[in-house]
Amino acid sequence: MSTRILDGEAFASQIHRETASRVVALSKRGITPRLVFIRVGEDPASRAYVSRKETRAKEVGLTSETIVLPETITLAQLLAQIDALNADPKVHGILIQSPLPSALPNEQVYARVSPAKDVDGFHPVNFGKLLLGDPTGFLPCTPAGIMEILRLGKIPTRGKHAVVVGRGQIVGRPLAVLLARKSTHADCTVTLAHSSTPNLPSITRQADILIGALGRPLFLTQEHVQPGATVIDVGVNRIPDTSSPRGYRLVGDVDFASVQPVAGAITPNPGGVGPMTIALLLSNTLRAAEDTVS
Ligand code: NAP
């Protein structure tokens, strides 16, 4: 069977081009979208993620800035910083890079970002709008990026059975809602599996579209996949690798070598979901800026 590779880099470039042309149109009206990252502490992975997002933001014409705060920052100081950005009319999007230090209550911090600037789509108001199908909210970037992979990859979705493995708040749960929406590029029958799901392979083998969002390295193998299914790998996991200078390498939740021979279509990892997450972040920021003039 020849397997289609769902090239997230190519789809992301397409979205970046659309974003860039709308940025030009908006700047003719005197507005340049501005995205501010807040990074707390010096976690190397967070530094790399923010730097990649900043590079892409610049490429599409957005302005951005990273505020780096010490690991020892108090909750009150962090909330005051967020309040200042909420009040600044030149800032259209705010992204608080996770993970935050464990001493800080994540929910309270994310909920402080104004819903109108919550371009990550994590605020309870935007989460509620997602559930209600209200298009004025911001969708969380990774699930929205996966829906774009299916749309741009021309993967049929209507009436198909999608199985999402992992019910995390950032990916699995919102993605299940998006896949089940009554809309041209969704309309799936959805199963949301998790760590208490018995006999997981018997469930995942029923999937026309299988999404791995569980954070377990190379967990999904050929035994989990119905021949011809579309397989999307969300996972980003570190596994020890003494041959790498970093001492580890990154792998997904899907064992690509095992699954690729039976899948009808599959995302590479890296180069699948990751670039789409950034593309959707930047298009959300553009929309936040457009909303200030519409
Ligand atoms: P999470 O909040 O920790 O959720 C993991 C989910 O997987 C939980 O629902 C858990 O079940 C389930 N699970 C764990 N082990 C399982 C097993 N053996 N069988 C079935 N289900 C199992 O994780 P997350 O934040 O959603 O992230 C998931 C993965 O996506 C991670 O690797 C993360 O790094 C990656 N990610 C990638 C991007 C990107 O842009 N590419 C963005 C965000 C996240 P329970 O609920 O029962 O515990």
From TrEMBL:
Keyword Thylakoid in annotation: no
**Quick one: a GO cellular component term?**
cytosol
Mind listing the UniProt keywords for this protein, alphabetically? Amino-acid biosynthesis, Histidine biosynthesis, Hydrolase, Methionine biosynthesis, Multifunctional enzyme, NADP, One-carbon metabolism, Oxidoreductase, Purine biosynthesis
Q: Which domain of life is it from?
A: Bacteria
- Provide the E.C. number(s) assigned to this enzyme: 1.5.1.5, 3.5.4.9
Q: Which Gene3D superfamilies match?
A: Leucine Dehydrogenase, chain A, domain 1, NAD(P)-binding Rossmann-like Domain
**Ranges of residues in domain Tetrahydrofolate dehydrogenase/cyclohydrolase NAD(P)-binding:** 140-291
Task: Copy the pathway line from the protein's UniProt record.
Answer: One-carbon metabolism; tetrahydrofolate interconversion
UniProt GO molecular function: methenyltetrahydrofolate cyclohydrolase activity; methylenetetrahydrofolate dehydrogenase (NADP+) activity
Is Amino-acid biosynthesis among this UniProt entry's keywords?
yes
InterPro entries named among the record's database cross-references: Aminoacid_DH-like_N_sf, NAD(P)-bd_dom_sf, THF_DH/CycHdrlase, THF_DH/CycHdrlase_cat_dom, THF_DH/CycHdrlase_CS, THF_DH/CycHdrlase_NAD-bd_dom
Question: Catalysed reaction per UniProt?
Answer: (6R)-5,10-methenyltetrahydrofolate + H2O = (6R)-10-formyltetrahydrofolate + H(+); (6R)-5,10-methylene-5,6,7,8-tetrahydrofolate + NADP(+) = (6R)-5,10-methenyltetrahydrofolate + NADPH
Task: List residues of the Tetrahydrofolate dehydrogenase/cyclohydrolase catalytic domain.
Answer: 6-120
Recorded hits in Pfam families, A to Z, give: THF_DHG_CYH, THF_DHG_CYH_C
Residues binding NADP(+), per UniProt: G166, R167, G168, V236
The signal peptide here is none
- Kindly list the biological process annotations in GO that this record carries: L-histidine biosynthetic process; methionine biosynthetic process; purine nucleotide biosynthetic process; tetrahydrofolate interconversion
Subunit record text = Homodimer.
Role, per record:
Catalyzes the oxidation of 5,10-methylenetetrahydrofolate to 5,10-methenyltetrahydrofolate and then the hydrolysis of 5,10-methenyltetrahydrofolate to 10-formyltetrahydrofolate.
Q: Which family does it belong to?
A: Belongs to the tetrahydrofolate dehydrogenase/cyclohydrolase family.
Q: Which PANTHER family match?
A: C-1-TETRAHYDROFOLATE SYNTHASE, CYTOPLASMIC (PTHR48099:SF5), C-1-TETRAHYDROFOLATE SYNTHASE, CYTOPLASMIC-RELATED (PTHR48099)
Per its record, how is this protein called by name? Bifunctional protein FolD
Q: Which organism is it from?
A: Verrucomicrobia subdivision 6 bacterium BACL9 MAG-120507-bin52
Q: What taxonomic ancestry is recorded?
A: Bacteria, Pseudomonadati, Verrucomicrobiota, Verrucomicrobiia, Verrucomicrobiales
